[in-house]
Amino acid sequence: MPLLVFMTLPGLVILLTALAIVDQLMLRAGRAGLLPWRNSARQGQISATGFEQLHATFSPGKQSELKERQSALLLRDDEEDGAPPNRTLVDLEGGTAVVRLPRG
């Protein structure tokens, strides 16, 4: 019978809330490593993920936000991707741009 309750939407919200409470209590007690969904490298709030997925079920905007967040995690963000330093000069007030080609 309890399984049937958690298969309904109100039951799912109750289950997620209970898991969030357990997660936060164990995290504050310093025993978060005992929880199966936490490991030593994982920091932050796990419970937020469940509530975001529940929110995404009913909101198409949230679904696209989660997809965008996931794709941003996969893309590399290197500081070297920009223009090389000391080779370009852009004067916005004067309306000029100077690009020095590398000697090669």
Structure in words:
Helix content is 51%, strand content 8%. The chain is mainly α. The N and C termini lie far apart (75 Å). The model has no long low-confidence stretch (mean pLDDT 76).
List strands and helices in order, with pairings:
Blueprint: H1 2-6, H2 9-29, H3 47-58, H4 60-74, E1 88-91, E2 96-99
Antiparallel strand pairs: 1-2
Helix pairs in contact: 2-3, 3-4
Task: For the structure shown, list the relevant keywords.
two-stranded antiparallel ribbon, 104 residues, mainly alpha, 4 helices
Measured by DSSP, the beta-strand proportion falls in 5-15%
Strand-and-helix sequence, N→C?
Answer: HHHHEE
Q: Pairing-aware structural class of the strands and helices? A: mainly alpha
The Cα radius of gyration reads 24 Å
- Mean pLDDT score: 76
Largest sheet, spatial ordering of strands: 1-2
Give a quick rundown of the structure:
This protein has 104 residues and is mostly helical. The chain has helices at 2-6, 9-29, 47-58, 60-74; strands spanning 88-91, 96-99. The protein has a two-stranded antiparallel sheet with strand order 1-2.
